[in-house]
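Students often ask why inverse folding is considered easier than folding. One informal answer: many sequences map to the same fold, so there is more than one right answer. In these notes we will look at a single instance of the problem. The structure comes first.
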């Protein structure tokens, strides 16, 4: 099988500022190429800018500069954006490049010589906005059916490509190659369009009207229609390029486009190629639109999202992941801060980042940073291994079918399964059992040690696989995360098998891969607009009656851990809260080693009335979940929330509170459900970011 892949994006108009919509198309192409390289393919990735035509000419005139100066400046915006987004293209083509101009002219000459192009006087309704003629029955209310703007009646000589003669051949090709146009419903749309008689294509513009274009080689009074020029970039961009044992790069394997330019790609372009007797592209894949508040993002609507703002704040991998995970290829998708924050916090911070961190931290605190080797696998391990192998195969299949969001979901479900496995096997408990085992009983100690090694190895190895699969989407974080698990090599196909890590690998020191993020709208939260005074005071009254409003819950850091001299079950902890340091006695000695608590963050019931516990005053209580079946106790982990962060349920206000009693706390009946701390129909959270718990559903929080 020839493992080659030539992928293109549309070439973007060089008078736009790139936004999330453009970024998505280019990212999708980038990720397709990276994935295929990972699978051993040789890839070629072409992107660039569309620099001729009326819009550019007009924009340059407005700025009082030449069109060439205008595009020399504007195309850089795209180059810079692609660099920031980590796009690895092979060529950035500009339609003003000399080799492209030459290629367009020779294609025109070839078609002209073959009698595929003819001149004719043409009269019709011309739209400046769309740079094309419309027939009278295409107009809507006498206006341009696409932009809704006025049209002018024009009569002029022009050159036409005999597109109509390829109608039947194109229909046959589409029917015989069901994956030529993807997704399938777009294929049907094109076939529907082709049920109407196909017109010939006007491929020229008189210079008197438009100067900024490629002159027709056979009539210097005309320039080339901008779409005829632009589509040929897909061929001119790979002239002389060979892939996979000397095969010419053309035909493209995938033209990735937005649904707005389907007709030009699935009708004009293939008929042009048929006219020249050249092979057709293998697939044309049209994705949907990114919508902002239900309408298409576009500069003219003034509703665009600039990816650079998000990259600057949260890093490039979060933007790459969000766009690819959130859009089902082919369907429209919505962009909002809320969706962005939720997706990043749930998938990347809570699930992936947390899992890698847990394993890395444990290996550093118990094995001097060297991953122990597993010399056997138990039933849970065999199950996870099997799942890892199945998920890897499934993800690869989905990637090959360009269902990237489905592939990512598959990988994320493996991450979640690994977290569950870690919770179940609880390496911290095995470590405690080793500590408390009879030193004389070497046999059971070494059995426990083998067990612990197996749990850590299995977790690290499964997470390593997930990172390899994610490396095309989040390349920077994957590199860091892999080093934290012991893989320093650049990912390739040989790393997609379970069992790559040899024991004894030194793990890079831990670093938070994906800190939790906040919704900008939540910073300096204000009552929502339109909320009147009466409504506000009624709400305040209800809140005062809510038992949850009596509790002050805050993220703390454990600064020191000592054993209580008088009470076997208690540790004396020194904590940093939102205002000061304090001491709390906590009944955690059966459940945690001191080293597991030191510098860890936890959630404190901070305004609990102070109590003396065997001579030491305790100021508050740390929240922990107790599994009702196993009795296992796990501190509530606030993830990456900073110590001092005040937490609340739903949208109850966070304010200083009077002292409260244990009864006030117990009234709430806090428990874990779906990984969150639930009270009634609200969850413990900070500005919309829920505090998560790995404890099983129904665990009681106290
Ligand atoms: N220059 C032509 C393409 C010529 S290709 C031979 C063009 N350029 S464009 O700058 O308008 O870019 C259009 C492409 O940008 C769309 O096809 C799509 O891939 C991407 N998008 C622009 N806005 C978009 C959204 N709101 N959502 C998703 N993609 C969008 O057309």
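Output (designed amino acids):
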């Amino acid at each position: 099988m020839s493992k080659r892949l030539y992928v293109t994006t549309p070439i973007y108009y060089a008078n736009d500022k790139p936004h999330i919509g453009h970024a998505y198309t280019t990212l999708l192409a980038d990720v397709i190429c990276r994935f295929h390289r990972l699978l051993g393919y040789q890839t070629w990735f072409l992107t660039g800018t569309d620099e001729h035509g009326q819009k550019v000419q007009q924009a340059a005139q407005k700025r009082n500069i030449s069109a060439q100066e205008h595009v020399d400046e504007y195309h850089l915006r795209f180059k810079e954006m692609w660099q920031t987004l980590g796009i690895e293209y092979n060529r950035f083509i500009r339609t003003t490049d000399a080799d492209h101009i030459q290629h367009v002219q020779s294609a025109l000459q070839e078609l002209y010589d073959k009698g595929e192009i003819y001149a004719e006087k043409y009269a019709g309704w011309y739209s400046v906005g769309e740079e094309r003629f419309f027939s009278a029955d295409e107009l809507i209310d006498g206006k341009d059916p696409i932009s809704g703007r006025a049209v002018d009646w024009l009569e002029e000589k022009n050159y036409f490509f005999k597109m109509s003669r390829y109608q039947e051949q194109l229909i046959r090709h589409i029917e015989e190659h069901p994956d030529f146009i993807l997704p399938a419903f777009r294929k049907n749309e094109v076939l529907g369009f082709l049920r109407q008689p196909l017109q010939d294509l006007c491929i020229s513009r008189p210079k008197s009207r438009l100067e900024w274009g490629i002159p027709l080689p056979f009539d210097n009074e005309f320039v080339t229609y901008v779409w005829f020029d632009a589509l040929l970039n897909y061929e001119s961009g790979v002239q002389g390029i060979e892939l996979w044992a000397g095969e010419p790069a053309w035909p493209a394997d995938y033209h990735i486009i937005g649904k707005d330019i389907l007709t030009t790609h699935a009708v004009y372009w293939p008929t042009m190629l048929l006219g020249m007797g050249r092979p057709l592209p293998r697939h044309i894949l049209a994705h949907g639109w990114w919508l902002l508040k239900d309408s298409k993002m576009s500069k003219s609507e003034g509703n665009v999202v600039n990816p650079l703002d998000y990259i600057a704040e949260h890093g490039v991998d979060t933007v790459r992941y969000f766009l690819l995970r959130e859009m089902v290829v082919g369907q429209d998708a919505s962009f909002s801060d809320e969706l962005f924050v939720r997706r990043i916090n749930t998938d990347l911070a809570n699930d992936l980042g947390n899992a890698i961190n847990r394993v890395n931290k444990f290996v550093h605190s118990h094995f001097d940073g060297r991953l122990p080797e597993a010399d056997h696998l138990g039933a849970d391990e065999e199950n996870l291994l099997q799942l890892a192998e199945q998920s890897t195969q499934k993800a690869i299949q989905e990637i090959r079918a360009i269902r990237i969001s489905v592939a990512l979901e598959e990988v994320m479900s493996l991450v979640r399964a690994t977290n569950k496995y870690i919770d179940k096997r609880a390496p911290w408990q095995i470590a405690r059992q080793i500590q408390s085992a009879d030193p004389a009983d070497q046999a059971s100690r070494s059995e426990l040690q083998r067990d612990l090694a197996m749990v850590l190895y299995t977790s690290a190895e499964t997470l390593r696989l997930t990172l390899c699969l994610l490396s095309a989407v989040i390349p920077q974080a994957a590199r860091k995360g892999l080093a934290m698990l012991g893989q320093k090599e650049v990912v390739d196909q040989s790393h997609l098998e379970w069992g790559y890590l040899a024991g004894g690998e030194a793990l890079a020191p831990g670093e938070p891969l994906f800190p939790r993020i906040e919704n900008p709208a939540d910073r300096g939260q204000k009552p929502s607009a339109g909320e009147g005074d009466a409504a506000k005071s009624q709400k305040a009254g209800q809140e005062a009656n809510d038992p949850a409003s009596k509790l002050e819950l805050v993220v703390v850091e454990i600064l020191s851990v000592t054993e209580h001299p008088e009470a076997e079950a208690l540790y004396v902890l020194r904590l940093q809260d939102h205002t000061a340091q304090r001491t709390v006695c906590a009944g955690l000695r059966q459940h945690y080693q001191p080293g597991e608590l030191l510098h860890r963050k936890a959630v404190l019931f901070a305004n609990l009335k102070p109590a003396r516990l065997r001579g030491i005053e305790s100021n508050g209580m740390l929240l922990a979940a107790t599994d009702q079946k196993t009795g296992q106790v796990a501190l509530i982990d606030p993830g990456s929330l900073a110590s001092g962060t005040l937490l609340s349920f739903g949208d109850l206000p966070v304010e200083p509170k009077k002292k409260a009693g244990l009864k006030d706390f117990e009234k709430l009946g806090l428990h874990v459900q779906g990984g969150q701390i639930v009270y009634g129909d609200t969850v413990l959270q900070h500005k919309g970011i829920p505090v998560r718990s790995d404890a099983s559903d129904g665990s009681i929080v106290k």
